[in-house]
């Protein structure tokens, strides 16, 4: 997990820590992105932009239907800005108008944003920020002489893909660029990858690379060959031609064999109520105990399945709570790639399991 201290940084300008960037397209504004820290101010120097967003990055995530209808919108998301400039644990706080895709658009945009972390006592520190994205609909084309916005770069992204295969933690470490490895340099990459009919990527384009010149973009493009999703969408359509934004977080802590930077596990499958009831320990039921908890420490496979699990929490003790939890391990699936761009496959994760059953 992230610590509070990071590499030494040159301090930036102090202040309230807001950052605003207007984004202009070929035919005028496409919107703006601004951020401000939230919660307790635990820094000396506020976060600030490394590079402001481009019209291409903002326009590429514009909700398709809203764009076609000339509808503008705004979304606010809350994220944690890590010591390595990664926006993690992002969630939608609000969107206007609702149910038009602007919240998902802001989440999709997050990996393309470059924000320098806050600094305290010369070190980078984690900060919660609220990020507001304004999407301004461009003017439509009129006649033959007044051009509308250039929409060639607009994409329709597939969000939250269910990965069947991703690179493992050890594969990402092995692919760490040599120059960055020698310098102990961390980096981030965002790829826009197009899916083939088989669920593998047919091509990838580097949309964001920070810092440049260390080989992070090339390393990410090579690792992208190991990603695979289901060839069909839940509604039965082929994924052929779909575009997925894939973030990569190369953290220098990966180069230390004694540490494993873990991402928060994202569960993609959980036991049913029937599974939970069947695994509930008989000893606890007999004793009239309905509230129990356990935690499993497991290895995540490339498909997201859990293996080599061991119980590390059991409460109350003496009622086979851990045994029941182990029976549920096969029912869980974890996304093998985190939303922040960290490899989860090949690493260990902790899965909490709580029971709250009515016992008669």
Salient structural properties:
360 residues; alpha+beta; TolA/TonB C-terminal domain; Fusion Protein Consisting Of Minor Coat Protein, Glycine Rich Linker, Tola, And A His Tag, Chain: A, Domain 2; 3 domains; five-stranded antiparallel sheet; three-stranded antiparallel sheet; 9 helices; disordered N terminus
Could you give the topology of this structure?
Elements: E1 19-25, E2 28-37, E3 48-51, H1 55-60, H2 64-68, E4 73-81, E5 87-96, H3 102-109, E6 114-116, E7 118-120, E8 123-125, E9 127-135, E10 163-165, H4 169-174, H5 178-183, E11 187-195, E12 201-210, H6 216-223, E13 228-229, E14 243-250, E15 267-269, H7 273-279, H8 282-286, E16 291-300, E17 306-315, H9 321-328, E18 333-334, E19 348-356
Antiparallel strand pairs: 1-2, 2-9, 3-6, 4-5, 4-9, 7-8, 10-13, 11-12, 11-14, 15-18, 16-17, 16-19
